[in-house]
Every structure is written in C-alpha cells, then in structure tokens.
Amino acid sequence: MAEKRKSNPVRTEEIVDYLMLKGDFSKAHRDLTIQKITATAARKAGLKVSDKELQTAADEFRRKNGLHKAGDIKAWLKATKISLEQFENFFEFSLLAEKFKDQLEKKAMKEKYSISSETRNSLKELIYKDWLSKNA
Predict the structure, then answer these.
(1) Helix 117-135 crosses helix 84-108 at what angle (to 10 degrees)?
(2) pLDDT in tens, the chain (136 residues)
(3) Burial code of 2-15, b = ≥16 C-beta within 10 A, e = fewer?
C-alpha cells in the first residue's frame, strides 16, 4: 500500500523569495505599483466602477476559466487562496485603468479623427504609457 504524502504547504514568504531569485518579482512589483498609481489617479479624476461593471467582468472571467457554477468560483478562490475582496479589487483596478486610459485619450485628442479601433487602441496605450512615465 502506498504511503500517503503529507501536505507540505508553501508559505507566502517562500513564493516571494522564489520570485525574487528567478527575477520575476520586480515585474510583478512594478505591475502592482502601476495598477495602484493608475487606480488612484482614476479615482482622483472622479472615475468609478459600477457593481454591474464588476459583475460583468467577473462573469467573463468565470466563463473564460470554466467556472460555471457558484460553487466553482468558491472552490477556485479557496484553492488559490484569494479572497473575494482581492478578486473584486483586481477587476475594479482593471476597469478603472481602462476608463482612465479612455479619459487620457479624450483629453489628448484635440480634434476628432476617423481612425480604426486598432489604431485608437494603440494610441490609447501610447498616451497611457506617456502619462505613466511621468507619474510612476
């Protein structure tokens, strides 16, 4: 009879150490810093995310990840050790960032041009990166 393996949970500190040694921590740290700077600027600009927008983003995430039942998302949150608050904050920050990019684009565009949505999205990203380089 095979001997059962004892659970050997990994501590958060070990994950951070591992990411630092692999060189992946800096990128994650930078991404989170950018996320917070952008969310703060978006809120200062009066931007908000509605409950409906949060729900739509969470529903899309669940569909993409095959989490179709209410129990599926609860099990996923438990397995990943992510709280519901952290889950919602992720979507709020993402939605605020998109709204903020849209606002930056509108402010930067003095005149309306007829451009493709792909070009508009590229321009929006460039305007956001320019803003970020001055504020991060």
Answers:
(1) 100
(2) 444 455 678 888 888 889 889 988 888 889 889 989 999 999 999 999 999 999 999 999 999 999 988 889 889 998 888 898 999 999 999 999 999 999 988 887 755 555 677 888 888 899 999 999 999 7
(3) eeeeeeeeeeeeee
Domain 13-135, CATH among 3.30.2390, 2.50.20, 1.10.4030, 1.10.150: 1.10.4030
Q: Where are the domains of the chain?
A: 13-135
For the entire predicted model, the pTM comes to 0.68
Q: Is 46 left (phi over 0), alpha (psi -120 to 50) or beta?
A: left
Look at the block and give the residue holding tokens 């991404």: 31
